[in-house]
UniProtKB/TrEMBL annotation:
This is L-iditol 2-dehydrogenase. Residues 12-346 form the Enoyl reductase (ER) domain. It comes from Fictibacillus solisalsi. InterPro entries: ADH-like_C, ADH-like_N, ADH_Zn_CS, ER, GroES-like_sf, NAD(P)-bd_dom_sf, SDH-like. Gene3D superfamilies: Medium-chain alcohol dehydrogenases, catalytic domain, NAD(P)-binding Rossmann-like Domain. Belongs to the zinc-containing alcohol dehydrogenase family. It holds the Pfam family ADH_zinc_N.
Length: 351
């Protein structure tokens, strides 16, 4: 494929994406070349599109967004041993150094030198082909769709959240925020044996969908009183594990309020403000364990296994599908129709 070109959807300036013809990357000795089949549109992509930055990660030059991805291997590097052409795969989007203290301790999601797809300055996968390191590429079961394989990435966040939160079978969980991450976290909790999963949101349409993702009880904060419903659902005890996925200061406060004495809180969502007021008296009085959740590590094999035999159809959260030529329309839809939009899927090589 020397000198061949591909189409790519490139963010050239704030809120402006254009289709460009770029060279197809040549895989290095330890890489495979993948034809991109399906890419989920993530909230971080939308943030870069709208604002050009997330915290210290700033878009300073044109960038290809997208990191929730699946595809087909079309070429392999000379030193690749465990993969072959023709395999259908899911891609873990973060290439870590393997040498820092965090990588060596197994928590490679904390690697300071990670090269993460669609995080400046690294390009993502709203393009026809991508070259990836062998160890970041995972063959998928024959019966798994490209869509589900792309959703392994956000699902991994949910798997990591319940792992960090030490969820045991038979426990109760409350999830603040029924966006895509809240939905897949609910699915992960259900698959892990949670007895009761309470979903909290402001949109009834999302709460309705959440019931298909494993949620057993819902609280609509536009209509319901959190304290009253929590008391009703848990007989005044509170939940074992509270997970925040909304990126909202009020949601963080809600998790601390909702968890039982001796319970755990896992914070996934990134609030727009760095500092969020919390009730320290409750944290101490209940002796709550509070954990931050950043991406994931060692989740892909487990996530693929869970999704391959799941009773929950994770594709339920896909509300819209677009071609790569329609990528800009997909972003605008996600921004302006939050009520009806959960996960948008984009197809760089056609459906």
């Amino acid at each position: 494929m020397a000198n061949a070109t591909m189409d790519a959807a490139v963010l050239t300036e704030l809120k402006h994406i254009e289709l460009q013809e770029l060279g197809i990357p040549a895989p290095k000795d330890n890489e495979v070349l993948i034809r991109v089949r399906a890419v989920g549109l993530c909230g971080s992509d939308i943030h870069y599109y709208e604002h050009g930055r997330i915290g210290g990660y700033v878009v300073e030059k044109p960038i290809i967004l997208g990191h929730e991805v699946s595809g087909d291997i079309v070429a392999v590097g000379e030193k690749v041993q465990n993969l072959k052409e023709g395999q259908r795969v899911a891609i873990e989007p973060g290439a870590t150094c393997g040498e820092c203290e965090h990588c060596k301790a197994g928590r490679y999601n904390l690697c300071p030198d990670v090269e993460f797809l669609a995080t400046p300055p690294y390009d993502g996968v709203f393009c026809e082909y991508v070259a990836m390191r062998e160890d970041l590429v995972f063959p998928i079961p024959d019966g798994m769709s490209y869509e589900t394989a792309a959703l392994v990435e956000p699902f991994s966040v949910g798997v990591h959240a319940i792992t960090r939160g030490r969820l045991d079978a038979g426990e109760s969980v409350i999830i603040m925020g029924m966006g895509p991450i809240g939905m897949v976290t609910a699915a992960a909790a259900k698959m892990a044996g949670a007895r009761q999963i309470i979903g909290v949101d402001l949109e009834q349409s999302r709460l309705n969908t959440a019931k298909e993702m494993g949620v057993t009880h819902t609280i609509n904060l536009r209509e319901d009183d959190l304290a009253q419903k929590l008391n009703e659902f848990t007989a005044g005890r509170g939940v074992d594990l509270a997970i925040e996925t909304a990126g909202s200061p009020k949601a963080v406060q809600g998790t601390i309020f909702s968890v039982r004495k001796g319970g755990r809180v896992a914070i996934v969502g990134m609030s727009p403000q760095d500092e969020v007021p919390m009730n320290v008296a409750q944290i101490i009085d209940k002796e709550i364990d509070i954990m931050g959740v950043f991406r994931y590590h060692h989740t892909y094999p487990k996530a693929l296994e869970m999704l391959s035999k799941a009773e929950i159809n994770i594709e339920t959260i896909i509300t819209d599908k677009y071609t790569m030529e329609q990528t800009a329309d997909a972003f605008e839809k996600a921004i302006h129709d939050k009520t009806n939009t959960l996960k948008i899927m984009i197809y760089p090589s056609g459906e």
